[in-house]
Amino acid sequence: MELGILDYIILTMTLCGVIVGLFIGLSGAVAFLVGSVAAGFAGRIGWPLSAHCFEAGWSRMLAVIVFTFVVFWLVRLLVRKTVHGAVAQPGDSIFGALIAGFSAFAVALAALWGLAHLGLADFAAQSVIFGKVFSCVG
Q1: What is the pLDDT of residue 70?
Q2: Cβ-Cβ contacts under 8 Å for 16 (sequence gap 6 or more)
Q3: Are 125 and 107 in contact (CB under 8 A)?
Q4: Per-residue pLDDT tens for 32-67?
Q5: Which of 6, 36, 85, 132 could form a disulfide with 127, with the two C-beta atoms 3.0–4.6 Å apart?
Q6: E strand residue ranges, the chain
Q7: Nearest 10 degrees: CA dihedral of 11, 12, 13, 17?
Q8: Which helix (H) or strand (E) holds 1?
Q9: What is the mean pLDDT of residues 25-30?
């Protein structure tokens, strides 16, 4: 099978993640991953909770965005300070590249999975990588 444009996007995102991971190291990559997950949960929880405080849609949305960024920043700072120094160089850069590359690959696949479940299954089905991964997963 021949790779399509979506496959090249997935591979490019993964390569960019690996390159960034080489520079930020293990502590930065783990902190970004954990901070992103925490920010996702904060946004998911913050939206229903903000209905009690804000009536207007734009102010509610702005409050949730600010809350999400604050949670991301705090969790990232805590995790980075905790993990920093756990692994010496050059292992720090190598493990950072692996974690960041995996994270970028997972984000790309999650985006395609989201598109497939939003009714754009034909669009997501054009990816060979997406088809291979999700045929193994189920």
Answers
A1: 92
A2: 104
A3: no
A4: 888 888 888 888 888 888 878 877 777 888 888 888
A5: 6
A6: none
A7: 100
A8: none
A9: 86
